[in-house]
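Hi team, as promised in this morning's meeting, here are the two structures we talked about. I've kept the exact order from the run log so nobody has to guess. The first one is mostly here for context; it's the second one we should focus on when we meet again. Sequence first, then the predicted structure tokens.
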Amino acid sequence: MSTDPRPTRPLGLAVLRYVLPSAIVLAGAVVMAFGSEVDLEGGGAIVSAGLATFFINWLFRIGVAGDREREREDAARDYFDRHGRWPR
């Protein structure tokens, strides 16, 4: 039995969060390596899309963490209503 409080995450989630944005940024860097002005602008746009993908995932995780904190707070308030003291 594991004492690690963190839940295990599926491989697909790690791929979506880290590998996909990294692959998009790497593809943009490869395009930029061709060197013409159009390649630099296009590669910059692709790199921006990869970074945006990463930050959208990050913002979603922040929002979900806030939901979990709200649920814990609601549970603590319910406990207080039933027992007259705040849970430890």
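And here is the second protein, the one for discussion:
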Amino acid sequence: MEHFAIEPATLDDLPQLTELLFDLFTLEGDFKPDRAKHARGLRLVLEQPSRGRIFVLRQDGHILAMINLLFTISTAEGGFVLLLEDVIVHKDHRHRGLGDKLLDYCINFAREKNFLRVTLLTDRGN
């Protein structure tokens, strides 16, 4: 049985997270990969936890997957909701259910923190 830890990302994780986003945006036709922009966006979330959380699935100190949860307000729901985006599993670790584990963790996080809804952002190709 494999041992994983799912935990909030930190600024020390920025290089690995940036590479994961670069890989993600290489796969998606809606965006042009740009490490500097990715790092800047990640830093904005990591430096201000009131904006959201980036969770990582880690094994032996290596990030195998990440997910980005941004906090916002829904006028329809009358309260706080999550925008879920940037779900990526490292190319060497896909098809092992890691994305499912990370997604389940985030849904439980949303419930525990009383978010009213989780919205998954996708692109045209998805």
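Starting points for discussion:
The first strand starts at residue 5 and ends at 8.
Residues 5-120 form a domain with the Aminopeptidase fold (CATH 3.40.630.30).
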